[in-house]
Amino acid sequence: MKKTVLVLTICIFALMIAPCKASPFSVLAIVPEGEFPDSDPVEIDYTGPVTFDIWFTGVAHEVVNIWLVLVVNNETYNSLGSITANGATFLKTDFEQVLSARIPPEAPNTLIGYPGCTYDDQFPVGPIREKLGEPYYYGYKPLGSSFDLETSGRENGKQFILTINLIEEIEDLRVLVLGNGVDTTATGAPKLNVQSAWSKSTFVVPEPGTIAAVATSLVALIAYTARRRKH
Length: 231
Description:
Layout: H1 2-17, E1 26-32, E2 42-45, E3 50-58, E4 63-73, H2 74-78, E5 80-85, E6 88-91, E7 96-97, E8 102-103, E9 123-124, H3 125-132, E10 136-142, E11 158-166, E12 175-183, E13 194-195, E14 202-205, H4 208-230
Parallel strand pairs: 2-14
Antiparallel strand pairs: 1-3, 3-11, 4-10, 4-12, 5-6, 5-11, 7-10, 8-9, 12-13, 12-14
């Protein structure tokens, strides 16, 4: 009798949460033009504005109301002026320190038009923390209805341009580009229920020239110090 009650309880609970179900068969991809995702986020050296392809794969009829989720490390946050992605502008004040186990928030925020996100399509912060270190910060904003995706496949996707504006040069630029959207085939409240898979996202790091310049200066300093010691 106890087993029957347990099964019945589980079935009723499953029916109750079905309207908020995530879309397990569709996934967003946000990858720089010409790049191809592998097992990790596509890593690119930032030398200026980057053109991104955004598309979805899977069985969704449409993916709409796409929100970008940008995560930055401490050095980038301290020197941040803004990050723009076409019509979406992220100011420094739009970022907050990551203190929760998953992002973006599960609860809606009507003040900014944020619909909330299903638990399964939030991003666990563990892998992000490994990439960025602590503290780290994130912001989230909608791309706008012009980026609604009607058909699956990269060839049917859209493009946006990401520009990072810093108030001063830094050596350790790190920006993780993620995203969520709404699969319109899901029933119930239109929470964000599709995410960009970890392997179909982008990790922006410093351009090689910056690292080389720093390395050259360091070598020159060591050589100069060595010469002074000889004298």
